[in-house]
Amino acid sequence: MNTITLLLALLGIASFAVLFYFLRFKASSRQTDRDNRIPWHKIWFQRERYKETKASIEEQKQPKVEKQPSEEDADFKD
Amino acid sequence: MSKHAALDRFGRSGNPLIRSDLFNQTALDNEDVTTLDGAVNKTAILLGLTVSTAAISWNFQGPTMGLISGIGMFAAVIASLATYGLWIFRWIIKPTPHRAPYTAPIYAVGMGFAIGLISEQMESLFPGIVIQAVSLTFFVAASLLLLYKTGVIRPDQNFLLIMVSATLGIFFTYIASFIYAMVTGSSFSIITDTGLMGIGFSLLVVAIAALNLVLDFDIIEQAAENRTPKYMEWFGAMALVATLIWLYLEILRLLAKLRS
Q1: Neighboring chain A residues of B135 at a CB cutoff of 8 Å
Q2: Is B25 within 8 Å of A43 when comparing Cβ atoms?
Q3: Which pLDDT does position A64 carry in this prediction?
Q4: With an 8 Å Cβ cutoff, are A32 and B16 in contact?
Q5: What gap in Å lies between CA B8 and CA A4, rounded to an integer?
Q6: Where are the domains of chain B?
Q7: pLDDT tens, residue by residue, B166-186
Q8: Quick one: pLDDT at residue B19?
């Protein structure tokens, strides 16, 4: 193993440690508190959104059944 | 307790992403949500699986292992498509992140067999190249993580558009080169060339692969921030491992070109 490979191996070990250590920390507010972030939720959850939208449309399409007053309903007088 | 459940749970935020409806829809109990720790652990598990299978592939060379590596790579491609879909053509295959807990280990094992075989062949040609490529991969990843966490690189939708375009451009170049090689027996010279053009192309691909890491960090960060379901830990980890493997292979190719 030559010197360059050895130095790179040490660099690699240090970088591996840094990567797995800092990945656990939350990003700075400079990164998180901004309005132009990528809307990942819209991309990854489109299937769920599609199902929900479809379900709500079908729900709206169903004819509304008017509830008939029954004898058991209380009749409050003014 | 206020009347608004979301305020009790998350506090008031000015972030439009947190205010979105989907954020509330995906919000779950504390035990079932994505955390940064969970994503890191899953990344470590996937990398462990990749390295383990790569070690098997490295040590047991032969036609059988070649076949296993081929099958592994095919399984990895299927696992990727099953999870990420072709979301740029999302009307064809929709992304299904909930499959990630099952597809991510398949991807890691499959790619492990493939990169073990490739690495062994490169190491026999250029001794010491694998250690250098692995070290440089982690160095680039750690550097970009620090740049992301400190907010020096702040990915937005334009960044995403550029990265997707560039990544797809590379993908189609490789596909075209593969088809060309099947027909003529030789691939595009820009990919295999060891001259300035070839090295320049490899540098460009390495840069794009490296910048894709920023998107992976952002996926993990936002998944944890938005209290998405637990399976997003596997999803983010799979994305990160996939990019790390791609970056490693490109650095390996670049180093091989530089040494030739």
Answers
A1: 8-9, 11-13, 15
A2: no
A3: 62
A4: no
A5: 55
A6: 31-259
A7: 998 998 998 888 888 888 877
A8: 40
Query: B34: which residues sit within 8 A by CB, 6+ positions away?
Result: B220, B223, B224, B227, B228, B229, B230, B232, B233, B236
What is the spatial distance between Cα B143 and Cα B130, in angstroms, rounded to a whole number?
Answer: 20
- Report how many Cβ contacts below 8 Å link chain A to chain B: 142
* φ, ψ at A55 (rounded to 5°): -65, -40
More confident residue, B191 or B217: B217
Residue B80 to chain A, least CA–CA distance (Å): 14
In 3-state terms, what secondary structure has residue B33?
Answer: strand
Averaged pLDDT score across all residues of chain B: 84
At B126 the three-state DSSP class reads coil
User: Which residue of chain B is at minimal alpha-carbon distance from A3?
Assistant: B128
Are A38 and B215 within 8 A, CB to CB? yes
Note the pTM of the prediction, 2 decimals: 0.80
What is the band of B23 on the pLDDT scale with cuts at 50, 70, 90?
A: very low
Q: How many CA atoms are closer than 13 Å to the CA of B128, on its beta-carbon side?
A: 10
